[in-house]
Amino acid sequence: MSDLPRKAVTRTAKLAALPLGFAGRTAWGLGKRIGGKSAEIVGRELQQRTAEQLFKVLGELKGGAMKFGQALSVFESALPEEVAGPYRAALTKLQEAAPPMPTRTVHAVLVERLGEDWRELFQEFEDKPSAAASIGQVHRAVWHDGRTVAVKVQYPGAGEALLSDLNQLGRFAKLLGPLIPGMDIKPLIAELRDRVSEELDYELEARAQREHAAEFADDPDVVVPDVVHQCDQVLVTEWMDGIPLAEIISDGTQEQRDRAGQLLARFLFSGPARTGLLHADPHPGNFRLLPAVPGEDGDEGTGDDGTGDGESGEGAWRLGVLDFGTVDRLPGGLPRTIGDSLRMTLEGDADAVYAMLCDEGFVKEDIELDPGAVLDYLVPIIEPALAEEFTFTRGWLRQQAGRIADVRSPAHQLGKQLNLPPAYLLIHRVTLSTIGVLCQLGATVRLRDELEVWLPGFLADEEETETETPQSRAE
What we know:
Layout: H1 3-6, H2 8-34, H3 39-60, H4 63-73, H5 81-96, H6 103-114, E1 122-125, E2 131-132, E3 136-143, E4 148-154, H7 158-171, H8 173-176, H9 185-194, H10 196-200, H11 202-215, E5 222-223, E6 227-231, E7 234-238, E8 243-244, H12 245-251, H13 254-275, E9 277-279, E10 287-291, E11 317-321, E12 327-329, H14 336-347, H15 350-359, H16 371-378, H17 383-386, E13 390-391, H18 394-405, H19 410-417, H20 425-441, E14 444-445, H21 447-454, H22 461-464, H23 470-474
Parallel strand pairs: 5-11
Antiparallel strand pairs: 1-3, 2-3, 3-4, 4-7, 6-7, 8-10, 9-12, 10-11, 13-14
Helix pairs in contact: 2-3, 2-7, 3-4, 3-5, 4-5, 4-7, 4-9, 7-9, 13-20, 13-21, 14-15, 15-16, 16-19, 18-20
């Protein structure tokens, strides 16, 4: 019944061919260098050719190959424009679609999990999938009570494919490093591999989605579809229309980009404070932009074009959030250490920042660093929190990535000496991924507003007593 295991030999062969291609291009690059081309030009040509092959292969496969491709795709903003341009369309495709599994396989899963009379649960069921992802695909249907629903069906053998692909990719992680300057690929693959069991467990996903749906039920800014039914390999949730964020990235108005960016930042920082959970898969395929509900909070609603009446676009759109298969459980919200260290960095208190990083394990005991140099390393990264509003651009992200990736720079050397404690791994990846999406959007965001309300420790204690609490903000 499973299409993935049958093709295991083919999948392994395709992934195994990638290092050979990388090695061949490295030899080609050496020849170009000998022929007189500059290292920078040759490096970019190698980067482009490697990326084209990598994403071509990842786009043909489901499982861990596609999961890795989706995780990597949010960082394309960090690449030089002449390199990123040719395959940006392929990355967007990864975020929104994958080759579907045959209808007979879908029906077989539904029979096995919902029973021989599964069709009686639905008034309608569309055999053609509306979306496909790394471990499952989504079908639009009408539940027996008349509600339009999304039926997520897990690929048979998805677990084996996920582990096999990620193990294979992990073997040549170092060769993938040059694709995204300043990013270590190996921990990303390891973290994806460690969460395979959670990703496959639709009961855990249903629980996380229900908690978010309940918390954001009356929220004017964020929409989470509720869970209708769940069992092994099948998850039925309320259907949600809207404009996929990938379309906003490619064709959206500046108002839509700014609004999507603001709401994405709000959801990232408010979610842990309100639910104790961090949505940990923030690629564009998991978000939609929906028109606001007319009349909420005094809003006049949206016009025929859906743009709303306010000049700022505030209230004109809501953010729809999908896929809670990967979450980080943070019962107390985001760690206060993050807010405290950000505040002290903005205040320029190098010694206090360094002491906190040492206490939390970001600096290993056997390493001694210059507190001033650490502060200089951090300040550009948190530049968006300095301004009243900040425009996230691909150019800014490329500058940050280049600064950290340049082996000749002090930032590169210092970055190699810093350590990321396990408790912060997923938070770090989610934050970087969100920044990548904001840069793809080219959004102007009032990030500081969100940090002041939702991030413990970002304001001094006396200031926190004077500002809104997460509870009052939600109300």
